[in-house]
Amino acid sequence: MSAVNVVDWDAARLASWSDPHLARVEAALSRWVGVDAPVLLGDAMRYAVLDGGKRLRPLLVLAASEAVGGNAAAALRAACATELIHAYSLVHDDLPSMDNDVLRRGKPTVHVKFGEADALLAGDALQALAFELLTPDGDEIPASIQAMLCRLLARAAGSQGMAGGQAIDLASVGLALNEAQLREMHRLKTGALLQGSVEMGAACAGAVASGALAALRDYGAAIGLAFQVVDDILDVTADSQTLGKTAGKDAAADKPTYVSLWGLDGARAQARQLLAESLAALDRSGLADTAALRALAHMVVDRDR
Amino acid sequence: MSAVNVVDWDAARLASWSDPHLARVEAALSRWVGVDAPVLLGDAMRYAVLDGGKRLRPLLVLAASEAVGGNAAAALRAACATELIHAYSLVHDDLPSMDNDVLRRGKPTVHVKFGEADALLAGDALQALAFELLTPDGDEIPASIQAMLCRLLARAAGSQGMAGGQAIDLASVGLALNEAQLREMHRLKTGALLQGSVEMGAACAGAVASGALAALRDYGAAIGLAFQVVDDILDVTADSQTLGKTAGKDAAADKPTYVSLWGLDGARAQARQLLAESLAALDRSGLADTAALRALAHMVVDRDR
After folding, report:
1. Considering its fold, how many domains does chain A have in total?
2. Residue B87 domain-assigned (yes or no)
3. φ, ψ for residue B280 (rounded to 5)?
4. How many Cβ atoms from other residues are within 10 Å of residue B184's Cβ?
5. What is the C-alpha to C-alpha distance for residues A200 and A74, in angstroms, rounded to an integer?
6. Which of A35, A45, A233, B92 is deepest in the core (most CB within 10 A)?
């Protein structure tokens, strides 16, 4: 384990990089989501996506793409596509037949606002839109990159990715999962799309040295797991207002978490360990400029919501 | 309007074409759907897809691809992808918050068998799998075809296609839609994916003469609408056992249909008119072998379930 260098973490420097990128992502999402859709459906799609969320997945796409010198148009579309998949998963996850949650990002959930049927359809339409964004007409984005982005996103979202992890989660309530089982569930449920975001960013360059690609994958896997460990910590330590969603619900639902497995201090130590692993992966990537990726790794671990 | 040539319709000849194609589609679906997924999710996905349905969309893909000399590997994957989108839409459409239907293809619906949460996730995972099937590793299918197939499928499935049509349908219960509104709803809800299937088949050739492509689009639009008109007729005239789903449910739900708009005889006359339009489109396509597409158009209009 390499020591964590606290100098890496410079919130002001991250903001100077991320603020203009976030502005571009927000503008693109507003331009692309729910426009020309039937009115109620479009409203529900926009409500689910716009003006909320940390946009961590888009930032990972953009940072990885910049690290490898990727096609900027492809990266912006890939960034938005990952956020649409994330947003649709939240809409469906909040439904009464799933987590039955009424609060998300400090606002009523989509089904509370628009009804269950439109929430279901909005989620479905957001998933389709993600793939539509990745495959624009014209030749600004080479077809080889379009196809690779669709491949990575479909794998990250499907039964061997996010949806598979949600199914394992569903089947695990009240069960005493061991560490390997818990890790596998989260590797799919949360990790696959976070790691996929990094890989999609790298794919925007078309071709990347295999060593660099492997290192970026390791980085993505480490921060994917770290994200969930921190989520479990925050579920115990933060209040609902700070989180913008219902705190303590995992414990209330008797769901296994990293905190229930390792205790609070143990989970915190694991999060630091994973941060160190993610930074070590960047060190061995051979890529010249990984400052944004490093800063995002710190953000994942040090966030308070 | 050209006269309908009843000699076109040769059930035995269609079967000699479609039977081996259906066998390939079934084998491919069985090989690709729900394998390596978490166990309950994979079971629900396979239950939703395998051993059921007319496989009209796959047959349209395969027939269109053969008419233009398309890549056979691409066509098989595109055929399965359209069926996965169709299957996922049925799973979600049957949920209690939507149509609340308990019978589909003569069997209990997915949520009745596996619970609402797994039905929701199975539908989500099937949509992702559709795009995963379209983007395999390797160079058997050129990236330009993979990207085009994803583009067409995403548009057909999303808020300006199938999901959008379902949202309009949802908002229309109890309303007196006029013909234009009803047609627009069905153009999206059912027509977009049927027309998209034809376009995806054509896309398997990479490049197709624009006149032929326009004619195939017109063919797809005509049979897409004809399919829904016949569906509305069968909802009134067939029993649940023959249909394999609950008959008469549109009338019971006070949903607008072509039969409520035109009467039974009027709807039947429209179906014949649309059949003639679809065949006329094939005549002007300039394509040499459109026999399978012609036979499928007859099948759409003359089916009894």
Report:
1. 1
2. yes
3. -65, -35
4. 17
5. 9
6. A45
Give the CATH number, domain containing residue B261. Answer: 1.10.600.10
Contacts of residue A135 in chain B, CB cutoff 8 Å?
Answer: 147-148, 150-151, 154
User: What is the distance, to the nearest Å, from the Cα of residue B24 to the centroid of all Cα atoms in its chain?
Assistant: 18
- The one-digit pLDDT tens for each residue of chain B (305 residues) are 334 444 455 778 889 999 999 999 999 999 999 999 998 999 999 999 997 789 999 999 999 999 999 999 999 999 999 999 999 999 999 999 999 999 988 899 999 999 999 999 999 999 999 999 999 999 999 999 999 999 999 999 999 999 999 999 999 877 878 889 899 999 999 999 999 999 999 999 998 889 999 999 999 999 999 999 999 999 899 876 666 666 666 666 667 789 988 999 999 999 999 999 999 999 999 999 999 999 999 999 998 87
Answer whether residue B229 is part of any domain. yes
ipTM, 2 decimals? 0.94
- Give the 3-state secondary structure of B98-131: CCCCCEECCEECHHHHHCHHHHHHHHHHHHHHHH
Q: Is residue B1 part of a domain?
A: no
What residues of A are in contact with residue B146 (Cβ under 8 Å)?
143, 146-147, 150-151
Q: What are the tens digits of pLDDT across the range B70-114?
A: 999 999 999 999 999 999 999 999 999 999 999 988 899 999 999
Q: What is the dihedral of CA A67, A72, A76, A77, to 10 degrees?
A: -120
Find out whether B120 and B40 touch, Cβ atoms under 8 Å: no
pLDDT digits (tens, 9 = 90+) for A83-139: 999 999 999 999 999 999 999 888 999 999 999 999 999 999 999 999 999 999 999
Distance CA A208, CA A138 (A): 24
Q: Are B9 and B298 in contact (CB under 8 A)?
A: yes
- Check if the beta carbon of residue B231 is closer than 8 Å to that of residue B190: yes
Task: Tokens for A227, please give them.
Answer: 């994200």
C-beta separation of A215 from A285 below 8 A:
yes
User: How many A-B residue pairs are in contact by the CB < 8 A criterion?
Assistant: 175
Query: Is A1 a domain residue?
Result: no
Residue A120, H or E segment:
helix A116-133
Residues A143, A164: Cα–Cα separation, whole Å: 28
Distance, CA of B115 to chain centre: 26
As a whole number of angstroms, the distance between CA B160 and CA A137 comes to 16
Dist CA A63 CA A278 (whole Å): 14
Residues 150-179 of A with CB under 8 A from B: 150-151, 153-155, 157-161, 163-164, 166-168, 170-171
Put simply, whether B92 touches A (Cβ < 8 Å) is yes
Q: What is the pLDDT of residues A71-80, one digit of tens each?
A: 999 999 999 9
Calpha distance B184→B191 (Å, rounded): 9
Domain that holds residue B181: 6-302
